[in-house]
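Q: Structure tokens for this one, please.
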Amino acid sequence: MATVIIMSISAGILGALGALIGKLSLSADSPFIKHITKICREYYNWDLINTIIESTIDIKCNYSLPYFSRVLGFSLMIYCNALMLTLFLKALGKGSTIEVVVLNSAANFITTGILGKLVFREIVTTKWILGLILISLGMTLVSIAGQEKGSIKSEKNIKN
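A: Here is the predicted structure, written as tokens:
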């Protein structure tokens, strides 16, 4: 039972992390890529010789490094999503579908909110927190109702 909970929550967190990595590495105006390019240009601007061969620096910092960073980010995103899917499917195989989906969705929603606040400086209002509580409460109620319905079906099968 504990492994199902851990796998479901881990899958939700990995899903949010994969989405974050994809957004940071693949968006056209990615602050991550701009930051890497800026660091690269600062690194190469310390030497007079490198300033003379500006075209080489331009190719390294504006084309090669961002391209490599995007490929690496895309690969990490695929890896996170594959790991998320693996954990999610294993949890589905060991536990009840409703419980796994509820835990996965709640973990993903909470992690997305936290990462949005930390990385993109999004505003987390009381309305958002109230929405989180209501969605989690609704998922819990659906989970409880599904488990009760499943136990009623099990009792009918035993009687027959």
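A few notes: Residues 2-159 form one domain. Helices lie at 2-26, 31-44, 48-52, 54-94, 97-120, 126-159.
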